[in-house]
Design goal:
Largest sheet: 4 strands, antiparallel
Number of helices: 32
Keywords: Kelch repeat, Membrane, Repeat, Transmembrane
CATH superfamily of the domain at 758-1053: Kelch-type beta propeller
Strand order of the largest sheet: 11-10-9-32
Subcellular location: Membrane
Radius of gyration: 42 Å
Strand content: 5-15%
Helix content: 40-55%
Main location: membrane
Family: Belongs to the mitochondrial carrier (TC 2.A.29) family.
Pfam families: BACK, BTB, Kelch_1, Kelch_KLHDC2_KLHL20_DRC7, Mito_carr
Length: about 1100
């Protein structure tokens, strides 16, 4: 019958896990003795309604090779084989009840402890945490099955030894009368067989009880579910309970037979459950598993019918009313009132004394007994939401929130006051309190009214009248999330009250001697810790003097300022201690502010410390942001961070092996590994093997590997490094002879490139004699172009501009072969959705575009009639274009970039000549200024800022396409020459990615091209890169960093990179041979 109690608790726990206990549902504190009395009474009636000798009959039936002729014969046979009927019946009866009662007591204590812990966690975590939402639909039958199975499993450890003793007592005969009682039986079993003997059958008992009680309660729930809110009749309840018991036994009876046989065997006849099952079936057939089932059914029906009936009607005797929402009251006050009423009335029954005693013991040990709203007839119903429960105080609202807090004062004689309040039954009670302060009641009323007024301000308004009321005062301007606001005047007044110790209702004491008077409602509104501390019913009386360990006075001052004024000074000196204290006191707002401060101040020198600090305090988002900063700025971190040298090997290995590590060359990773080992060489040099496995050695330069890795002392002196060196040498050799390999050449792990942190997008352009909307991205690590399917369905564009703000790519102006555009399209690289944004004020083809401080600038261009010198600026927050100062000259087909918070525009075409002029725009003055002219005239030019200079490359000088370039240095206002590209081009795209300038596509004077080349200032040379998938000019490119879905834009099959390279080289060799053959044929024909 403890099973029923645990079942009720589990069902209620499922309900409460899916609701807000603090604001809607409160558990009514019903004395534990109600459960004790109802289940004890059910246990006694249970054993009385079914003759105790039934159990003896069942046991004997299960173990006799020849079944008894009838139940009556078996009954008298059992009694005749023992010393007498009367003492045997008493013994078995008491043992049956004893089998229930101690389990029940254990369950009571266990439930108290579990519920108390659970309640504390729920309150501290503000009830709404997703982690405690175990079942989203507690009314489903699966929930009842789980609750019943949990209850059955919970009572098994205590019930199993008692069932063992009962079985041995029932089966002993007169000649074997060695057991005089249950305890003597268990002691003798323990001495003879040890702990294994006492726990014999425990495992199979678990196997029986889980599904048995699950089916038991599911069946009862199914039979008692009605659409009506009226309670079911007693007959209905009896029949449902009986059939539920029969179903439970039919399911579990074969398991119970095996359990009984194992427990009845005093020797080692059976080695386990399967052994007992096999031997029983081999000796007696399958019928032995159902021997005695008819008698069990006859016993189960009345037994279980009586169980539910007695439990339910006993709840009624203890005052449980059906279909009534539970009321909220203080447990200490309720118990005190109950005790006084019963004493005054002279009503001190056994049950009442039990209630007071047990509840007192519970409070003294920090336990609170949960009570559960039980329907008039089972099954258990869920608590109804109490929408009138006040958020701050344990009271009911009637009209106004503070109405329920009003107290009726009587005369004050001798410093004492009598306070009258109405309890939930409608009776008027009197309670005496000592008057420590003359105006104590007025202070409490003032605080309550202030709190309720503040609560009204924080609540969302529901009518225009309220909106007008709250918006008339222009001082209520501190905005909060969700459209709410606070009155700064009211909060400042409350803060002044606290500083002057006025209207304060609690004191916080710190270990360093700090004493802080506070208003409990204010602190409870911003901290779940204080809400739980001040509103919980776990304490016998209100907490008004609290000691806070581990908190310093400076931190408490800052937190109190935030609690009252929502302002706080977070700086480098206090952020760590402030975050720790805010986390301890569950002040989420301060915790978020500290995390934001640390996130905004991440640097190569502190990022590792921030990551580890965030991990220690479970700030998962901050930890992830710090980790992304580390892998994204790994080169700077490896060079400037001292913290990385103190990382343990367990954290360093996954870091250097991460695919997301942003390194242009694996040489950086190798140098960091050596630096880390050199920090403590004696204890760390043996880790060289584990770290080398995480370095992509195959991507190192061959000469660097042979000179700096292969022959390094740490590697040479460690034999475990030899397989890694051999694998790398083999790969480097295969790389040189790749075209001579037969079959597919896989890419080993040591040569698979990491994931890039920057993605280059090339969009639109002119291809095959017409504009295109083709999009492809460039994976710098794999050196591959990847086509993207999400093209703009509104149509193609060429001679347009691209701008990036966040993860949005803006396509501005352009030409589709017919129309010149002023429209703008926006592509979000995360959602992959295109949308229309506000159009420009002027149509602009051959437009120049730049981005400065998240503002998009569009300059010059051609509208189909005139070359433009106007310029305008787009603000994505307002979705609006606005005109700025015009340039000094007309320009189309020019190029613009940003440097040092200024915009530079170079070259272009004015309608008559290709231009070599350039000018700079200063947004702070809204003024354009001419700078030194370039060395060459350039139209269709591309320019980009790179390493503090403006690089201008390619273009058309009026005669031919150019491959030359030059750079402008603002500090000297002068231009200088840079190396020429391999291929001349104009109207091409340019971008900086991977710290190199990439020139993409364009027109070479004869045709559009797909060729790509890159410039590295460190070597002052151009290099060829992988060609695009299609030829195009008049395209635009942009770079996005830190895409969360970067894997959507990179090469998917990195394990096939070697084979792709082999196929490309083979195709190139074949083309060269074909070209030589054609030349030879032409020469032969000419001869």
């Amino acid at each position: 019958h403890s099973v029923i109690m645990i079942y009720v608790w589990v069902c209620q726990w499922f309900d409460n896990a899916n609701s807000d206990l603090c604001t809607k549902k409160k558990l009514k504190e019903m004395p534990t003795s109600a459960f004790m009395d109802s289940n004890l009474l059910a246990a006694i009636i249970n054993r009385s309604t079914t003759c105790t000798t039934f159990d003896a009959y069942l046991k004997r039936t299960r173990f006799e090779d020849k079944p008894f002729r009838s139940r009556r014969y078996c009954k008298w046979k059992v009694i005749a084989d023992n010393t007498g009927q009367r003492w045997l019946a008493r013994l078995i009866f008491l043992l049956d009840v004893w089998e229930d009662v101690p389990v029940l007591w254990w369950d009571i204590l266990w439930i108290r402890l579990r519920f108390t812990c659970r309640l504390r966690i729920v309150v501290i975590q503000n009830i709404e945490a997703p982690g405690i939402r175990n079942l989203s639909e507690p009314d489903r039958l699966s929930s009842y099955f789980l609750a019943g199975a949990s209850a059955g499993l919970a009572q098994t450890p205590v019930a199993s030894p008692i069932e063992l003793a009962k079985t041995r007592l029932q089966l002993q005969s007169t000649g074997q009368g060695n057991f005089q009682g249950p305890m003597q039986c268990l002691r003798k079993i323990y001495r003879q067989e040890g702990y294994r003997g006492v726990s014999k059958g425990l495992g199979i008992t678990f196997l029986r009880e889980g599904p048995s009680y699950g089916v038991y309660f599911v069946t009862y729930e199914m039979l008692t579910k009605t659409s009506s809110k009226q309670p079911i009749s007693t007959l209905h309840m009896l029949l449902a309970g009986g059939f539920a018991g029969v179903a439970s036994w039919v399911i579990s009876y074969p398991i119970d037979v095996i359990k009984s046989r194992i427990q009845a065997e005093s020797g080692n006849c059976y080695s386990g459950v399967l052994d007992c099952l096999k031997k029983s079936i081999r000796a007696e057939g399958y019928s032995c598993l159902y021997r005695g089932l008819n008698s069990t059914i006859l016993r189960a029906f009345p037994t279980n019918a009586a169980t539910f009936a007695v439990v339910t009607w006993t709840f009624r005797l203890f005052g449980e009313k059906p279909n009534e929402a539970p009321k909220v009251e203080n447990i200490a006050l309720r118990t005190s009132m109950q005790t006084k009423n019963r004493t005054a009335k002279g009503y001190e029954s056994f049950a009442n004394k039990w209630n007071v005693l047990f509840d007192g013991i519970s409070r003294g040990n920090g336990f609170v007994t949960p009570s559960y709203s039980v329907r008039f007839m089972l099954p258990i119903s869920r608590l109804m939401p109490d929408s009138s429960a006040c958020l701050v105080h344990d009271c009911r609202r009637s009209g106004c929130k503070h109405d329920a807090l009003k107290q009726e004062n009587t005369s004050e004689d001798g410093g004492e006051r009598k306070k009258k309040s109405r309890n939930d039954e409608g009776r008027v009670e009197e309670d005496e309190h000592v008057d420590e302060k003359k105006d104590c009641n007025n202070v409490k009323m003032a605080i309550n009214m202030c709190t309720c007024n503040l609560q009204r301000v924080l609540e969302p308004t529901t009518s225009n009248k309220k909106n007008e009321k709250y918006n008339t005062n222009n001082q209520r301007l501190i905005a909060e999330s969700g459209g709410r606001c606070m009155s700064t005047q009211a909060m400042q007044s409350l803060y002044d009250f606290r500083q002057n110790n006025l209207l304060c209702d609690a004191i916080l004491r710190l270990e360093d001697g700090g004493v802080f008077p506070i208003h409990r409602a204010i602190l409870s509104a911003c901290s779940t810790y204080f809400r739980a501390l001040f509103t919980t019913t776990l304490h016998s009386r209100e907490k008004t003097d609290v000691l806070l360990p581990g908190v310093t006075s400076p931190m408490m001052n800052l937190l109190l300022e935030y609690a009252y004024l929502r302002s706080i000074d977070v700086n480098q000196e206090n952020v760590c201690e402030l975050l720790t204290t805010a986390d301890y006191l569950s002040i989420v707002g301060v915790l978020d502010l500290c995390c934001d401060y640390l996130r905004d101040n991440l640097a190569p020198e502190n990022c590792i410390g921030v990551m580890r600090f965030a991990r220690q305090h479970f700030c998962k988002k901050l930890e992830n942001d710090a980790y992304r900063f580390i892998v994204g700025h790994f080169v700077e971190v490896s060079q400037r961070s001292e913290e990385i040298l103190h990382l343990p090997i367990e954290e360093l290995k996954p870091l250097v092996g991460a695919d997301e590590l942003n390194v242009k060359s694996e040489q950086t990773v190798w140098e960091l590994v050596l630096k880390w080992i050199n920090h403590d060489p004696e204890s760390r040099k043996d880790y060289i093997v584990d770290l080398m496995k995480n370095i992509r050695l195959g991507l190192l330069d061959t000469q660097f590997f042979l000179e700096n890795v292969k022959d390094h002392p740490y590697v040479v002196g460690n034999d475990a490094c030899r397989p890694i060196i051999i694998e790398t040498l083999k790969f480097l050799y295969d790389l040189e002879m790749i075209t001579q390999k037969d079959g597919e050449v896989p890419t080993p792990e040591i040569a698979r490139p990491r994931v890039p942190h920057e993605i280059l997008f090339a969009i639109g352009g002119w291809s095959g004699g017409s504009p295109t909307n083709y999009i492809e991205t460039y994976d710098t690590r794999a050196d591959r172009w990847i086509p993207i399917e999400e093209t703009d369905l509104t149509g193609p564009r060429a001679y347009h501009g691209l701008a990036v703000v966040g993860f949005d790519i803006y396509v501005i102006g352009g030409f589709d072969g017919v129309d010149y555009f002023n429209s703008c399209r926006c592509f979000n690289a995360v959602t992959k959705v295109w949308r229309e944004v506000a159009p420009m004020n002027v149509r602009r083809c051959y437009v120049s575009v730049a981005v400065l401080n998240d503002l998009v600038y569009a300059m010059g261009g051609y509208d189909g009639y005139h070359r433009q010198k106007t310029a305008e600026r787009y603000n994505y927050e307002t979705n609006q274009w606005s005109l700025i100062a015009s340039m000094n000259v007309q320009r189309s087909d020019a190029s613009a970039t940003t440097l040092n918070d200024k915009i530079y525009i170079t070259g272009g075409f004015d309608g008559h000549d290709c231009m070599n002029t350039a000018e700079v725009y200063d947004p702070s003055t809204n003024q354009w200024t001419m700078i030194t002219a370039m060395r060459s005239r350039r139209s269709g030019v591309s320019c980009i800022s790179y390493h503090g200079c403006v690089y201008v490359i390619g273009g058309f000088n009026g005669i031919s396409r150019m491959c030359s370039g030059e750079k402008y240095k603002p500090s000297t206002n002068s231009w200088s020459h840079i190396p020429d590209m391999y291929n001349p081009r104009s109207n091409f795209a340019i971008e900086v990615i991977d710290d190199m300038i990439f020139a993409i596509g364009g027109f070479n004077g004869v045709t559009t091209t797909y060729q790509v080349e890159c410039y590295d200032e460190k070597t002052n040379e151009w290099y060829e890169a992988t060609d695009m998938n299609i030829c195009r000019s008049a395209l635009s490119a942009c770079v996005i960093m830190g895409l969360p879905n970067v894997y959507d834009y990179i090469h998917k099959h990195r394990e096939r990179l070697m084979e792709e390279k082999r196929q490309k080289l083979l195709a190139h060799e074949l083309a060269m041979k074909q070209e030589q053959k054609d030349l030879f044929c032409q020469a032969a024909v000419f001869d």
